[in-house]
Each structure stands twice: as structure tokens, then as C-alpha cells.
Amino acid sequence: MLDTVETAVAELPEDTLQVYLLLVCWAGDVLDGGIAAAILNCPLEQAETQLGILAAAQLLVDATPNDWYRPHEVFDDQRRRAGETANEDLPELETQHALATRRIAEYFLARLSAVDELVTPGRLRLDNYVADYRPTDLTLVQDRATALDWAEQQLDNILLAAHAVHHLLPPLCFAVLERLWPVLVERKLYPQRPAIDELFMVTAGLAGDEVLLAEAMKRKGMHLRSAGDFDGARQQLGMALKLWGDVGSVEVRRRVSAERTIQQRALATEQQALITEQLALLRLAEGGGPGAAADAVAMLRGCWQSHLDSGASARTIALVLNNLVTAMLVTGQVAEIDQAAGFADQALQMLNAIPDTFNIARALTTCARVQLALDDQGRGNLRHAAAYAADAADLALTLRAPSETAAAQRVQANVARRRGDHARAQGLLEEAIRQFEAIGSPAAPAVRAELTALRAEITS
Predict the structure, then answer these.
(1) pLDDT averaged over the chain?
(2) Residue 26: CATH number of its domain
(3) Does residue 6 surpass a pLDDT of 70?
(4) What is the pLDDT of residue 253?
(5) Whole-Å CA distances, 445 to 56, 186, 346, 440, 451
(6) Residues 419, 382 contacting (CB under 8 angstroms)
(7) What is d(CA 218, CA 238) in angstroms, rounded to the nearest whole number?
(8) I need a labelling partner for 258 at 20 to 30 A (CA). Which of 241, 267, 339, 341 fits?
(9) Is residue 375 in some structural domain?
(10) Could you list the residue range(s) of the whole structural domain that residue 13 is in?
(11) CA 140 → CA 33, 116, 155, distances in Å?
């Protein structure tokens, strides 16, 4: 095979050979027109033509669908040889490879930024990296689920591109990883998160920016909480909270202009509230019953007030309200649950006004839980609970958000059990387990326990 490839390379026209020698700088498993256009710094149509020529010469394998090409298994050897050739005969090629590597990362940054704006419009983004390369043929997908599908499918390539620039251009690497946020939130990607968080932390450290480091710590703490590592989450969130306190401190503010001081203080206040919100959710997740829930409620009320005082976005306020309702339901107190019902409706209305479909699904599930909590007190409406949960499940399925789908199905199973439809409840719990296990969610064991209890109830 190697001789065949070498022969094919030797027979390439000079201009196509130069294209080939540039393309071998890409170490990914697949190569598409967008990546090739970034490497070659040319329009998408021209890059796709070059890929077709190399495929016709059997130097690339057509990996359709998706208009992807897959390098031959000897491509790594060719890449090594090209590197040796660059050092011996074509020293400028090494520089061209470095520039191409940067453009690849900036290409993914542009694509991810489009996904991020579509999925989470108005989200606060803490980096300010300005790219030199901006793809002119960027196709903007208007369907959020399809956009997230692309990002999830390209995750290995995205991480490869980010890692390739993290030492020389840490702000670029950080920006690429930062734009992955909506994918991580909606698709979870639990197995890949430790490596992503580690690269995020290393890159923030290399950038030497305490704001970026605090953000990386917050992200890691949020993941560790959802993964059930409560000690690790507390440590990361605590360090992030301290760093934001330092950012807003007098000592730091003395080094910047008055206008920048005001911006930093406002940003620090908002971020401290967001981190405190995560610490409240951690307190709730650790258990401890109504007492722990009461602590979480107090913390979340403080966050809510802080967001109101600082003029935070409707999305931020709606999300803290949704989390506050979750904590209120755990307290079991009648007064708290009554107020929770109002807050849940308010959060849902605010999210509908944006609209933020992913968080609408979450808020619908919360509204269903409120109705179940009222039903426990003989005041709820199972028909309303069923309607909220069904809408949440349908919306989450449309969004292809497995964790939110499973959460809604879990509530649907609770409604079915209360109605005596044990077969439906069992089927819903089994499907919820499948959804959670497909993404490696730590929530799966708890649902399995519910399924075991339901089966025992059926046979008793």
C-alpha cells in the first residue's frame, strides 16, 4: 500500500503536490471541505475540488455521507515524511503548517460560535479572542438540533484542533472550548468531559488570565457536581468563587481604568451569584433532607435577588427561579410549595418569551413536579402534571436532549404510577434508564432503584 501511495504522490502535478503536503498537517480521522479550506486558505468550492482530485488519485477515501474524506491508514507515515521534507528541502512548509493549524482552530471557532449563538442567544461569553481567519463560505444551520448534531459529530476534530494550538495560542484554544458549552449542556458528553475540562484548565492557566481560570474552574465544578463528585465540585467552585472575589477586589481594580473597574465589579458580582447558585445545587444534591434544602433555598433566594439588583438577563433570572423551585419542593413545606408554584409559572413564562427551548423543556418538567408535590398534599392536579411532563418529553425529544428527555419521562412514570398504570410507568422508567445510560449519566442508578421499587409494588 505504501508503494502505491508513494507512486500516486510522485505522479501528482506540482500544484496538487503542494496542496497534498499542506493537507497532511491535519491529524484528524476525517477531512471535509471546511477544514481543507482553512488549511489551504481558499474558498470552500476550491478546497472541495482539491479533495476530489486527491480522492481520484486514491490518496483520500470518500467517507460519505457528510462529504467527508478519510485519509488512508498510511497517511501518518506520509505526514512524518512531509515533515522531514519540510525541514530538509521546504523550510517554509513548516511555517505554512503552523499557520494552517491556527486557521483550522479558527474555522472551528467560527462554526461553534454560530452554533452557540443559535442555541444560546445572549449567553455571556468571557473570552475576547479575535480571529484572523474567517471562513467566507460558512453555512449557518437554522435548526438547533442539527447544529448540535454537527458539533457532537465533530467533537474529536474540534478537540484535536484546540489541543494543537493550546501552547502557542491559549486564548484561541480557550475560545474554541468555551463555544462548546451548549453542546456540553444539552448533550452532556459525560465520558468526554474530564479530558475537555482538563484542557480547559490547562489553557486558562497558560493564558495567565484569572477570569478565564475562574470560568474553567466553574465549568469543571458544574460537571463534577452533575457527575456525583461532590467533594471535587466543592473544591473547584470554591476556588472559582475566591478568584472572582479577587477580580473584584481593590488590589486588582487599581491596575485598570475606572470604566474597566466598573465592568469588572459588575462581572464579578454576576459570576459570584452564578457560582453560589451552583454551590446551592451541590448542597441540595448531597442530600440531608429538608434542612439541606432549606439552606439551598436561602442561597438561591440570595442569588435571585443579586441577579435582580444587577439587572441580569431574563434567561439568568428564569434559570435561578427554576433551580429555586427545585429546592423548595424538597423542603416539603406547604408555604414553600405554594410559592414554588408561582415561581415555576414565572420562570416558564420568561423562557417562553425569549424563547429558550432547551430550558423551556426543563421548566415544564419542574412545573409537572410542582403539581406532583401539590398532589402529595391532596391539592394537585394529575392531569396538569401529565400535560406538563408530556410537553417536556416531546420538546426534549425534538431537541435530541437525552438527559432532559429522561427527566421528563421519569415524571411521566410517577404520574402513571399514581394513576395505577404500572405497565406504562415501568416502560417509561426503562426508557429513561436507556436515555441516561446512553450518555453515561450518573442519574441512571437512581432511576433503576425506582424501577426496582415499582416492580416490587406490582408483585406485592
Answers:
(1) 86
(2) 1.10.10.10
(3) no
(4) 46
(5) 51, 20, 32, 11, 10
(6) yes
(7) 9
(8) 241
(9) no
(10) 2-89
(11) 15, 11, 18
